[in-house]
TrEMBL record:
Belongs to the class-II pyridine nucleotide-disulfide oxidoreductase family. Its EC number is 1.8.1.9. InterPro entries: FAD/NAD-bd_sf, FAD/NAD-binding_dom, Ferredoxin-NADP_redctase_2, Pyr_nucl-diS_OxRdtase_2_AS. The lineage of its organism: Eukaryota, Viridiplantae, Streptophyta, Embryophyta, Tracheophyta. It comes from Davidia involucrata (Dove tree). The keyword Oxidoreductase applies. GO terms for molecular function: thioredoxin-disulfide reductase (NADPH) activity. Its cofactor is FAD. This is thioredoxin-disulfide reductase (NADPH). The keyword Flavoprotein applies.
Amino acid sequence: PKQMAAKIGVGVGVGVGVGTVTQRAAMATPSTLFNVFPAPNSRIFLRGGSTRRCALRIDLFARTHYALTRVRVSASSEELPSSSAQGVENLVIIGSGPAGYTAAIYAGRANLKPVVFEGYQIGGVPGGQLMTTTEVENFPGFPDGITGPDLMDRVRQQAERWGAELFQEDVEFIDVKNNPFTVRSSERKVKCHSVIVATGATAKRLRLPREEEFWSRGISACAICDGASPLFKGQVLAVVGGGDTATEEALYLTKYARHVHLLVRRDQLRASKAMQDRVCNNPNITLHFNTETVDVVSNTKGQLSGILVRKVDTGEESVLEAKGLFYGIGHSPNSQ
């Protein structure tokens, strides 16, 4: 691990001072917790030789294994702007899905006081792809399953409990060429020693000719977000894909749709055996193998009324009546 050095010159009356603090990022034993409170007329010596009068407190927080020492200098003075009081953060985490919040929990337990930029999921909700998931049945500790939003709410609360500072803002700029690093969001700028990028993924699209025209007006990539809306409720719907995402969306939509068609480009499903069994045994789902989605069609009112499909093996095209089309074809990383 790299060494982190904090050089602070402090005049605190007669014979008391703190000079250079150099400690490794990983230690076998906790360091000492102490505070320094100078007299009212003390000075803080800043880089460049300038001095300013202020009431100064220096905190070196106790550390656990693999924890960076947090050196925070806070000053109360009208001459110092608030940004100077914040100093340099140990860690900034970008992203609020399972990876981002888990990193925040571990960092918080290590006394790193992480700053988390949660960002926004489409629709203004942080929390990652699990916010658009129905039942999470394979996460340890929940024998009866738990919904994605409920799970992420618990993980978020746990991160906050361990001291993570959360900002529901998008990061717009990162400078990692200079040390300390700079992370700028839509509302603030933060200096930090380390950055974790946990930005997750975005649902893939088919790029159909009329996709943009009907996006959010008949085409969606989130069944849990839109399935119960008046636009789709009680209608015949279609889902594209053959993996766990597509089968899960199809099963969820049967709660609200009159019937669901699952359009699979291959000759078999790629979903887990448990999901395959559920789909194949559901009378409200019809599977269409070797079927490629070509485009959507509309009625005279400009509403989506069907899906133009093509048989992969024969090339035959036909229109499948449906009022909505849902994508379940995977995701692309947001780090690209």
